[in-house]
Structure to design on (229 residues):
């Protein structure tokens, strides 16, 4: 069964610093990978997704993620953090063989200080 | 505006008192799902529905019921709530044709406390 592991339940950065949120996946077949963001008191919204096309995926708000099969990773990055990026970020995986199975990680809360 | 609407957003209830959390989407999505979010556990799927009258269990279905009588609505029913069902609940929907690669649209969440 597929799964994702997000390293670090909290990540703190200064405004303008690089953001790096880590996600490693486990899947028996080529996976489909997603990053969702949850702003305070809101539902989740899709940030970006990897579906076996380009390995470097660009999303909204300047975020991007790179699929690395050799490392089974799909880390999320942003060159320069903004205060409005403070949120919780979830990595998710689907094996593509059953629509209903989107498995989420435990989430990483990003804190941005001035 | 395309949206998934959940009600109530906040609810405090007592053990054993039946309650229903409603979910409605206006995007004509075939697929709908319920998740619960707990600290340190992320989102776990409770039930999902592929279309009207088609529902199935997710990873944590115990203590919950659902129904899908209309395409737009997917209520979550707690027949006899217990304190371990205190959680933040999310409803989500998507086009079935999008498959697992498609985007899930989430409601704003319903925070339930069972005393």
């Amino acid at each position: 069964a597929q799964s994702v592991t997000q390293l670090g339940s909290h990540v703190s950065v200064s405004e303008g610093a690089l953001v790096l949120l880590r996600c490693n996946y486990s899947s028996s077949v080529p996976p489909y990978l997603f990053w969702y963001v949850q702003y305070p008191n809101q539902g989740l919204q899709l940030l970006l997704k990897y579906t076996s096309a380009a390995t470097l995926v660009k999303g909204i708000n300047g975020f991007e993620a790179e699929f690395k099969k050799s490392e089974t990773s799909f880390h999320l990055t942003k060159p320069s953090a903004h205060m409005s990026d403070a949120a919780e970020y979830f990595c998710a995986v689907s094996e593509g063989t059953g629509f209903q199975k989107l498995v989420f990680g435990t989430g990483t809360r990003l804190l941005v200080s001035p | 505006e395309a949206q998934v609407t959940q009600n109530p957003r906040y609810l405090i209830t007592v053990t054993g008192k039946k309650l229903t959390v409603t979910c409605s989407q206006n995007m004509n999505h075939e697929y709908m799902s319920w998740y619960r979010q707990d600290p340190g556990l992320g989102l776990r799927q409770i039930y999902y529905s592929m279309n009207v009258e088609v529902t199935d269990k997710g990873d944590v279905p115990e203590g919950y019921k659902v129904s899908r009588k209309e395409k737009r609505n997917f209520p979550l029913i707690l027949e006899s709530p217990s304190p371990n069902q205190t959680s933040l609940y999310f409803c989500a929907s998507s086009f079935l044709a999008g498959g697992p690669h498609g985007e899930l649209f989430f409601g704003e969440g319903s925070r339930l406390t069972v005393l």
Notes: The mean pLDDT of chain A is 90. The radius of gyration of chain A is 13 Å. Chain A has no helices and eleven strands.
